[in-house]
Structure prediction request, 319 residues.
Amino acid sequence: MKIRSSFIWALLALVSLPALRADYMDIVVGDRTVIQRGVIRGEDSARMIAVGTPCDFNYAFDAQNCTPVMVWQGEFLDFQGETNGRGGTGSVILGNRQPLHTAIAPLRIANADPSPNELRFRGYRRDATTGAPTFLFEVDGVSVEQTISSPAPDVVVLNLNFPTPGTHRRFYHLDAEKHASVQLSDGLSWNRPGVIEISAQQANASVTIHLEPQTTPFTRKVPFLDGPKLYRAYCVACHSTDGVKLIGPSFKNLMGDERHVTRDGREQTLNIDKAYLRESIVSPQAAIVKGYEAVPMADFSTILTKDQLDRLVDYLAGL
Ligand code: HEC
Prediction:
């Protein structure tokens, strides 16, 4: 677990300067995924495993029921409640809770309906480079490995891996109607609404959930103002910094570069300056870059604070 200096400072303040006792203690995620076990305020299970990734996608896995239960975007956890000796009121998540609407113990073997007879949580394995966990558990004797990831805001991919060939069909309970949409990988189908069927031989099952977009913008107690971090939090899914084209143009050498855009239905050529960068972030549909019309960029005017926007523009201008 990597804890940045702000956390150490909060800890020092707490221990040595009671008068300056911090109101909160954020666990700040650095370059590697952070894992924090314990109680999360507002969640029933006492065996929660909170996971914070460097791209500000966070989720909680309930080890008791062997399932991810919710995700949140932004900063990770304030675990002051776990440390203040008031009986562990639980860590507080620093973002908007977005439930995944999986059932309790959502994976069932052979028969979709009864709850599993035996559920065994076997811990997790961590990726050597990123620190990302793969959760290991057994449902009625069937070994399962699960990962949870987010390739874009409001998109969550649940991946189930079955290391040993199966003899029974498996079923996964997920209330798709509570989400904007749910896509299934090959070999998966809807047995009935809310129940995904995975064939016995299928070694890999992947479920892509498009969450209902958040209605309340994510707010932090202290909005972070770090350019690279803002980039990783909000832009990395669509923009590279090394010249590679993703869904949007790369951020490499933007300033002064020539752009062909469509503005008010008319084509225009411009040279990128800070005003254009700013406009591209807060009103992305004002000028659409030629060749990138397929996927519209999200409007960040309600997501970023004014200071965050300034920092982001400075960061982009310096790349
Ligand atoms: C869902 C994908 C997506 C995300 C997320 C996204 N963008 Fe974009 N962005 C695009 C697309 C597509 C374009 C090109 C079309 C257009 O001009 O709107 C674009 C264009 C831009 C441009 C103009 C680039 C140029 O070469 O002219 C800037 C600047 C920009 N985005 C900044 C950002 C920033 C900063 C963030 C994060 C806060 C961000 N974008 C997040 C998809 C995205």
